[in-house]
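Bench log. Compound arrived from synthesis this morning; before running ITC I wanted a structural hypothesis for how fructose -6-phosphate sits in the protein. Inputs:
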Amino acid sequence: MPESTNQHRYPIHAIHAGIGLSVFKNASEASQVVATEIATLVRERASAGKPCVLGLATGSTPMGVYRELIRMHRDENLSLRNVVTFNLDEYFPMAPDAAQSYVRFMNENLFDHVDVLSENVHIPDGTIAEESVGKFCDDYESKIAAAGGIDLQLLGIGRTGHIGFNEPRSDADTVTRMVVLNSVTRNDAAENFDGLENVPHHAVTMGVQTILNAQRIRLMAYGEHKSAIVERTVCGDITESIPATFLQQHGDVRFLMDDAAASKLNLSNTSK
Ligand code: F6R
């Protein structure tokens, strides 16, 4: 059997509802494109003596990008010393060394393997006292602003249409805050937590507005289980019931998908 019987020439590019759509043969090719865009931006900024501010995501989706950045650091002299990072979210409460912690995820999957400076890394803190979360979130927004705003934001998408942990009913004006996780999201995380009862009910997340303020947004989606939410996000009306639909209002957003995630999009009806 040939690897793919599909007669498409990849990648397929289209635009729909203001969203750039790129379909790749597989997740690894899409990840390479995203990592190359990041590396180019980081190098451009470094040559200009400027920092590059990245908004980062966790979960299974961005892992290929991080693997590729690590490879470029090792084999192609890519330095991340001028990079400032802000992660989208963290469960609350969550100890940084816990198996499901996003701090641990980022260290193991990227930061421990590159030369990013620890003082330039920002991840919502799952250990603070509940009464201090509001102040922490305000400070997080201030730090993003002080860094000059996010140049490029990486996103995955949840089956609820969440971006970050902005679950349904998160409006376009939301900023970094504590949220209640949707039951679909908690169910999807149950395996990682060895059972639904261990999945936190809360998280701290950047808001929809925080995300929309980024200069560029690159959302990746892989697998058939993402196809329905990708279709509703790209083809549906803009609604707070599917926070990802707010991305239609952003001027520089691209979805990078594999065939399975794009399978419900009728790309022949989209304009180039
Ligand atoms: C993770 C995040 C979430 C995930 C989404 C998809 O930091 O903000 O929005 O991107 O839940 O998760 P995966 O990639 O595991 O399918």
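What the model suggests: The chain has a mean pLDDT of 95. Residues 57-61, 88-89, 156-158, 162-165 surround fructose -6-phosphate (CB under 6 Å).
ITC booked for Thursday regardless.
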